[in-house]
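Bit of a strange request maybe. I'm writing a small parser for structure token strings and I need a real example to test against, not something I typed by hand. Could someone generate the tokens for this chain?
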Amino acid sequence: MEAKLIDSREIAPGVRHFEFEALGVERLDFVPGQFTSFTEVIEGKEITRAYSLASAPSGTSRFELCLNRVEHGHLSPRLFEMKPGDRIEMRQPLGLFVLRQPPRDSIFIATGTGIAPFRSMLQAHLKESSSAITLLFGVRYESHLLYRSEFEEMTWRHPQFRFWPTLTRPEAGWKGRQGRVQAHLAEAIGAIDERRGDLDFYLCGLKEMVDDVRGVLKGQGFDRKQIFYEKYD
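Reply from user aminoacidic:
Good idea to test on real output. This should exercise your parser:
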């Protein structure tokens, strides 16, 4: 299967939002939270990389990704050079990082482009009857709060949804949360104020953050079956 680039735009320094069309299918079926893989031959070697889908299933063949350019990376520089109409080999979406069914009150914890699967989940599942969800999103700088306006709009439309951005390198004008996401876990858990056995956690981001948060949650008595995660280097 091939994917054709429809459009891309910079949404933060070194980060782009991509819109693709899967060719040869009328509809690209996937579960929010899953990923697709792209393959390209670069300098004589076949390189494959997996990327979380950043959009909900639309009933069409179109899908979206959110990627940062990795210095000296094998595939991301190629993707950042693509122009509308360019094609790349892709695979059918896969992955187990999806919401428990039926969904329960949840805390989503993301850093950087780890926000992508949560955007997909929220677009698909957030509605009037949804369970409570808190999105704790950590980045270094305010300029890297990806999809900020979308998440803020969700908080206006859905009172059971909370968007909590936190910065590790805030500038003088920042009045929101500061520090790593780990520093705000207790507050997030208390804000939902549900029985601890009925609360799920979904983590996506760099390996260090995911491993650290898992350790904190297990230390607080949460069962591993309540913790779902996807991590990358």
